[in-house]
């Protein structure tokens, strides 16, 4: 069974913790009031990718506050995948979605298939939203309306991450043999 370290990053108040609680099957995901994440919160759980394989997930719910940028190297260390969460109603998030992508994905050598953008619409019109990073798969989410598609999108993302992890493991094993 693979163990995957997945980071949830994005600007403050984008909905990362609510999404983490939902994916980690925590309770009262929509009823609690906003409390900013201090540094990072790690949720561990098992899930199925739908094709018969289970995976252990280490989901790192990372604070979006610039106060914790000095922690980013430790958070990014050995990450297998990154989910960037943002709220499109926040027109000038700091740091920007692009800054999170550049640091946690591009500079760490992750492929675009190891990254996904969750546009958290929170009851807004979801029809006219474009991805801030066109090369990365982006999905619109609204936990208040549609739980099923979020789970499916997450499992599809995990399949891509596991494919990459499997290829890396196979290459390492071949290097040992040769």
Automatic annotation (TrEMBL):
GO terms for molecular function: GTP binding; GTPase activity. Keywords: GTP-binding, Nucleotide-binding. The keyword ATP-binding does not apply. The keyword Ubl conjugation does not apply. InterPro entries: P-loop_NTPase, Small_GTPase. Coiled coil: none annotated. This is Rab-like protein 5. It comes from Ciona savignyi.
């Amino acid at each position: 069974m693979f163990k995957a370290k997945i980071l949830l990053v994005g600007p403050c108040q984008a909905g990362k913790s609510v999404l983490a609680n939902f994916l980690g099957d925590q309770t009262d995901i929509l009823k609690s009031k906003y409390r900013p994440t201090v540094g990072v919160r790690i949720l561990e759980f098992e899930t199925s990718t739908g094709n018969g394989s289970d995976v252990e997930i280490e989901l790192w719910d990372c604070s979006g506050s610039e106060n914790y940028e000095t922690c980013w190297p430790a958070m990014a260390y050995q990450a297998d995948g990154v989910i960037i969460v943002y709220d499109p109603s926040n027109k000038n998030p700091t740091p920007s979605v692009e800054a999170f992508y550049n640091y946690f994905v591009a500079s760490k050598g992750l492929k675009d298939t190891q990254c996904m953008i969750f546009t958290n619409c929170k009851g807004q019109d979801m029809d006219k939203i474009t991805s801030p990073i066109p090369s990365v798969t982006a999905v619109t989410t609204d936990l208040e309306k549609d739980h099923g598609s979020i789970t499916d999108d997450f499992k599809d993302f995990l399949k891509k991450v596991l494919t990459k992890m499997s290829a890396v493991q196979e290459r390492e094993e071949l290097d040992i043999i040769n």
